[in-house]
Amino acid sequence: DREGALRLAEKLRAACAEKPFDCAGIEIAATCSFGVAQLAPEMTKVEDLIGVADRALLREYLLTYKDEDV
Questions:
Q1: Dihedral, CA atoms, 65, 66, 69, 70, nearest 10 degrees?
Q2: Which of 50, 29, 32, 49 is nearest to 40 (CA)?
């Protein structure tokens, strides 16, 4: 369900941000973002579901950074 997917995405985001990783001796802090979408009956191709997830990700990005110069 959608709420479960949102909880999982948040867990994954937190795990990614929790600990920097090492790349050739350089410590790199990383973050990640996820678009969560729920499959609907009218979605006949995987691209339909990916498109909904992409739009959800973009919407959250725009809401998060709307007042910043990114």
A1: 40
A2: 49
| Cβ-based neighbours of 42, under 8 Å, separated by 6 or more | 48
Are the CB atoms for 38 and 5 separated by under 8 Å? Answer: yes
Q: In this structure, what token pair is assigned to residue 34? A: 């996820």
Q: Which of 39, 30, 38 is nearest to 12 (CA)?
A: 30
pLDDT(67) > 80: no
pLDDT at 48: 95
Q: Residue 45 has which token pair?
A: 């191709």
Asked if pLDDT for residue 27 goes beyond 90, the answer is yes
